[in-house]
Amino acid sequence: MSWELDGRLAADTVLVADSSAFQLRLLNDHRYEWLILVPKIANVTELFELPSLHQQQLLQICNSASEKLLGERHCDKVNAGYLGNVVAQFHFHIVGRRMDDPAWPGPVWGHSARESARDEVIAERCEYWRALRLV
């Protein structure tokens, strides 16, 4: 079976970068700098199901993105992880948090409905993350 992005991820996110192994996507929510990393392997729902190389690459990408979120993007904290309770397809969240964001200090997951960003905000964020060539 070939890999296909879950429709809910496609609807809520914007493609930032695409490689043979991963898609890097941005959640369309103006309140958070929220990246989603999706391995391009069919039928994977858990981290341990990824091949070791993909697990290593995921960690490297997460580390690089986290460093940028805390540095150049001026976030106070990074929340990273995967849940899969709503969208079973494995995807990894890397969320830049600020002490003044509406969910602080609690988790962003389930806090409130997504609030779409203006086109120029999405464009700036995508341009920034694409230029880093994380995937």
TrEMBL record:
Coiled coil: none annotated. The keyword Iron does not apply. The keyword Hydrolase applies. Gene3D superfamilies: HIT-like (3.30.428.10). PROSITE patterns: HIT_2. InterPro entries: HIT-like, HIT-like_sf, HIT_Hint. It holds the Pfam family HIT. Keywords: Hydrolase. GO terms for molecular function: hydrolase activity. Residues 35-104 form the HIT domain. This is Diadenosine tetraphosphate (Ap4A) HIT family hydrolase. It comes from Umboniibacter marinipuniceus.
